[in-house]
Amino acid sequence: MLPTWYIPVFIALVLLSFFMTPPTFIVKRVMSRFQLHPTLTDKDTIFMTHEAGFSHDSEVRTVHEAELTGKDKEDFIRHWNAAKFLYQHKQGYLDREGRTYTVRVSQRGIDQRFVLIPRDLNIDVIKHQPRKGKVAYQVYSPELLELAMELANRGSSPAQAESSM
């Protein structure tokens, strides 16, 4: 005959082991909420906007905005997820002179906006977080930079650029 205290101890040990080593899918789900550079999937809706001529004295002129679909979306997701996170900028806001590319992502009903600022080999990213403000960080991905420039050049013909100015 087993003593009655064995059953509660056994249940407590099972629960303790579950909390000490939770399943991988639970860990990934919790960690993704705190991830600065999110991982994108095929289920996410991605819009890309090419903004030219931004300076602190003039207003932004949107040349082209389109939803990414098909091969463009697959390429963008692959390059975005492969981008190497370098570091978070402590000063927060960055110099946004020149060309910028805005990416809007709808992930599980949450809209996020990322401003991509091309540099020599790196990309500065400003993440607009709902209810939290802006966070700036830098990633390394020459392929993502090339793809963003290609999509912007393909989507904005000179006629469209002149009509939007």
From TrEMBL:
- Membrane-spanning residues where? 6-27
Alphabetically ordered keywords of this record: Membrane, Transmembrane, Transmembrane helix
Q: Which domain of life is it from?
A: Bacteria
Name of protein: Uncharacterized protein
